[in-house]
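Dear colleague,

As promised, here are the two records you asked about, laid out in our usual form so they can be pasted straight into your sheet.

NAME FIELD: protein one
SEQUENCE, THEN STRUCTURE:
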Amino acid sequence: MKDMIAYCGLDCEKCDAYLATINDDQALREKTAKLWAELNNAPILPEHINCEGCRMEGAKTVYCESLCGIRQCALKKGVMTCGGCPDIETCQDVGAVISNNPDALKNLKG
């Protein structure tokens, strides 16, 4: 499995926060912060948009670092991703991600 697959199965290499970070793209940071602030009804600023990947060492967005329940659960259970969790079939949290992004399940099984 690729290192850049998040615990939930999303591909970090396709995430705007990751792309803005590795390319030091301030315009993408601003665009992403605005969109995420609207979607989450939260005060997300461009300086919050820095991430080097969910399972990688380095910078993470505030959400990914400490608010993502899926990441916290996977770390607690010691699984590489939710694909290695025996509860994946009944987990509503990862189920929500998979229902919104079917490629996430492919990534978890691949």
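NAME FIELD: protein two
SEQUENCE, THEN STRUCTURE:
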Amino acid sequence: MKYVRTSPRKMRRVIDMIRGQHVIEARRILRFSPLGPTPDVEKLLSSAIANAEQQPGVIADNLMVSGAWVDEGPTLRRYRPRAYGRATRVRKRTSHVTLVVATMGEET
């Protein structure tokens, strides 16, 4: 998933919780986590599972999150007015999230 409007630092906290987990356990963790980026990661996990099920012989119950990482995307620069006619830069950070699911036997 690219260009997610969440800072990479916040997104990494969520990704670190599900890396190496079984997909059912990862969904449970994401569903009950109070962290902000969890809906985006949950949507990404569902998409990865659906994509993996398209391969012949792959069953969703046998999948695990074998790899997950977050890279920094482009930063949107905005300006806010401040006192005495000055302006300060506001950096709106974006993330590129990669999630790899594999069957229990194989590791990537």
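A couple of things worth noting about protein two: The first helix runs from residue 8 to 18. The chain has a mean pLDDT of 94.

Best,
R.
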